[in-house]
Amino acid sequence: MTEKLYDNDAYASKFTATVLSCEEDKKGFAVVLDKTLFFPEEGGQTPDHGTINGIDVTHVAIKDDIITHYLEAPIAAGTTVEGVIDFTHRFRNMQMHSAEHIFSGLVFKHFGFNNVGFHLSDNSATMDYDGKFTYEDALKLEKEANEIIIKGKTITAEYPSSDVLATLEYRSKKAFSGPIRIVTVEDTDICACCAPHVHNTHEIGQFKIVSFENYKSGVRVSYLAGFRALEDYEKRLSDLREISRTISAKAGEELKGVAKLSEDLGTYKFKDIELRNKYIELKIQSELKNGDTGICILPADFSSCMQFASDALKERYKGVSVVLCGDDDNGYRFYAESDTIDLTKILADIKNSMNVKGGGKSTAIQGTVMGKAEDFCKVF
Length: 380
Ligand SMILES: [Zn+2]
Description:
This protein is α+β, with helices and mostly antiparallel strands. Helices cover 35% and strands 32% of the residues. Bound molecules: zinc ion.
């Protein structure tokens, strides 16, 4: 069993230990020490970062109470080593995890739902509850959680005796064997937990829900707390400043600016369709010829105008209207209509002689063709 130094002192960042074993496996050099400050991947939380004798620790795992550090280089068994954990990272995890206890304690107090899935990594943090409540409910709990944070409630972690434990009502995700570590947030929550926590709620700073969704039979709440919430706020403000600069909107009027852009876009789209239709009409007029077959070849980005072009052709040609969109190098989309001949027969013929995919009925066919427009149009 590895002695867990972080159990007694969540704020220590340096320690000395002895290497009990070092074996190479798929994940690197697996080093087991007699004691460690490194919190392993456990209880939904990703492990601490840091170094042992200056060598990067790439992962920390726990199995049967033995903590294994994965290193990029070996260290001989028997060596006395100095371990250093990245306390900036550790403290952010402490802020995040303590905030989770406060919020989950409030969810349990108000709704009786349990946190049945907790995930805390460097990039995200989610809490899954086994019952449904609304986003408005969640915002009320968020406010209550922040009030508890501001009040400065103490947070303690200890291993109560089995007699004391028997009298305690505490939240727990699983049935434990062996000593149970109880984390208590004063007047707020009692929960079985193995992770390092801050000593006082005011160290958390702030708690913010960032997304809320229905999940399985309950809800999933994503959140940020402490410095990670502050860093996220700065990132969002920076994005907003960039948006403000890009759309030339005054600070605080970005939403108005986006609404105006959206309105303008709708107008331009409308004008664009008008212009395209005008172009098609002029093109058909300038290419008028004798006969019953009308053909209109359009650029590739005119595919949404094919029906309009076909209707314009039908006004001038009594037999077949053929519209192509594309170019000889990359192929065409085609659309053909006729009230006088069976187009499915023509389609069957050109499928035999050209690289054509498509379908339709006797009066209208559509599809794609690879090859020259000139060759395709000859068959009509
Ligand atoms: Zn916990």
